[in-house]
Design goal:
The chain is mainly α. Helix content is 67%, strand content 3%. The chain has 24 helices and four strands. A four-stranded mixed beta sheet has the order 2-1-3-4, with helices on one face. A hairpin with a 6-residue loop joins strand 3 and strand 4. Helix 21 packs antiparallel against helix 22.
């Protein structure tokens, strides 16, 4: 009897002693970091009005209300605008460090203190999203949110095999797993209680709640207001769908087949709130918590499936675009690119261009091959300084930024930056920037370089040193 009980306990202990939901916690950290940085920067010009002694709530009024409520904020320590600027800018720095995941747990504590300090300084402009974010950030203090996509992730995975059997690691794992579990349970409680309150409301029962929400100008966009108010079916559907997705959330979340449906449902729900009602930060905060609902294995499987799908789509597109590239109008636009075969950066650039060349309009040749310079009349010294290109059939050579512009016009993903390259060239800075980068690349002569090497001796000595 005792052995059977211990066997049943073992899977639970194994789960507790092994950190789960690491990818979701890391994505949530990145999401909250972006939201906090957005909040700091979007209000930067109005920071004095919103949070300082010279703004909506002066220091004396804030101190009186905070003393009554027992709140704490770093901004209460001094009414000075200089001190305010110091704390505000330190908050921006901490938010950036939290975003990149440097010194995870220590920065998480600082970020939590700076965040609640900013929220408590002026509660008049806060909403429910700020309260939820404050709660989730507190739980994440006990979680490992820097295992992935962070400045400390490499160090973590190097140390983990050495410490994962220690008592300290197991204690941290227990705290991490319970912290994520508390986030999920709180999310379930919020959705369930919200759904139950909606069920008890008359306008939600008769399907007209969305109609009345759209009557409030502060929480409705004129375009969607005019669009939805003319469609009774859309109003009723949106009203009942918001109730159903909230009530179903806690019950469908823990089934592997229905989880994705309900997660997509709440993300769609909050996306609609952000677009129609303009509550962007609230919706983003709720969507960031949803990252915690997916396990590491599910994220990895999703990444594998998406990568496989992307390869299939890429292969299909490449096959069709290459067929278009063989048509005469496009064949006449083919370009040959002369690059430095001794330059690792140039070789990497060529590999990238080959992957992006959907229509197959680019050909490549290293000017380091003697036959290339002779066949195309290239000056080796000029070709070493700048990449060159020419359209097949033409005699004009394009060098430096001009060659890069000619290439960008034939690479579909580069069409977005092609106008910027042309503008930089017109302003006279394009060639200078290109030469600045090209002059600092590393050249590695094939087979080494001796006294007979035709490279300038100063440059050879530089790279040998």
């Amino acid at each position: 009897m005792g052995s059977a009980t211990s066997v049943k306990r073992r899977p639970l202990l194994d789960w507790l002693y092994r950190e789960e939901f690491l990818i979701g916690a890391s994505l949530a950290r990145i999401g909250f970091g972006f939201i906090l940085l957005y909040m700091y920067l979007i209000h930067y010009a109005q920071r004095y009005l919103l949070w300082s002694d010279a703004g909506l709530i002066d220091h004396a009024t804030y101190m009186a209300s905070s003393t009554k409520d027992g709140a704490f904020s770093l901004y209460m320590l001094s009414p000075s605008l200089g001190y305010f600027d110091l704390i505000y800018h330190l908050g921006i720095v901490v938010a950036i460090l939290y975003l990149i995941g440097w010194k995870g747990r220590f920065i998480s504590i600082l970020n939590f203190i700076f965040t609640i300090s900013l929220i408590d300084r002026n509660v008049l402009i806060s909403d429910g999203g700020d309260n939820i974010m404050r709660l989730i950030l507190f739980y994440l203090l006990f979680a490992n949110a820097t295992a992935y996509f962070s400045a400390d992730s490499d160090k973590y995975w190097q140390r983990r095999p050495l410490v994962e059997h220690t008592v300290l690691y197991k204690i941290k794992s227990v705290f991490h797993n319970f912290a994520v579990l508390f986030c999920i349970v709180n999310l379930c409680i919020m959705y369930l209680s919200s759904g139950l309150y909606q069920v008890m409301g008359e306008v939600w029962n008769n399907g007209t709640a969305v109609y009345y929400i759209l009557q409030v100008d502060e929480y409705s966009h004129p375009f969607f207001q005019s669009l939805l108010l003319q469609n009774d079916f859309a109003i009723v559907l949106a009203t009942y769908a918001s109730i159903l997705v909230k009530l179903a959330f806690p019950f469908l979340l823990f089934n592997r087949y229905t989880k994705y449906a309900v997660v997509c449902g709440v993300i769609g729900f909050h996306t609609g709130i952000a677009i129609v009602m303009g509550l962007v930060t609230f919706s983003l905060i709720m969507c960031m918590i949803d990252f915690l609902l997916i396990t590491d294995k599910e994220y990895q499987r999703l990444y594998t499936d998406m990568s496989r799908l992307a390869r299939k789509i890429s292969l299909a597109l490449r096959t069709r675009t290459r067929r278009l590239g063989r048509m005469q109008p496009l064949r006449s636009q083919r370009v040959i690119v002369f690059f430095d075969g001794w330059c690792p950066m140039c070789q990497a650039s060529v590999r990238t261009l080959k992957a992006l060349d959907w229509f197959g309009l680019l050909r490549y040749a290293s000017f380091r091959e003697q036959s290339v310079c002779e066949a195309y009349g290239l000056d080796p010294q000029k070709a070493e300084q700048r990449m060159h290109s020419k359209r097949i059939g033409d005699t004009d050579l394009h060098g430096g930024i001009h060659a890069f512009i000619q290439i960008s016009k034939r690479i579909v993903p580069m069409w977005l930056i092609s106008p910027l390259l042309c503008l930089a060239n017109r302003l006279g800075i394009g060639q200078k920037v290109y030469d600045f980068i090209a002059a600092r690349r590393t050249i590695m002569p094939t087979g080494g370089c001796d006294d007979s090497c035709y490279l300038p001796r100063v440059q050879t000595a530089k790279h040998e040193s």
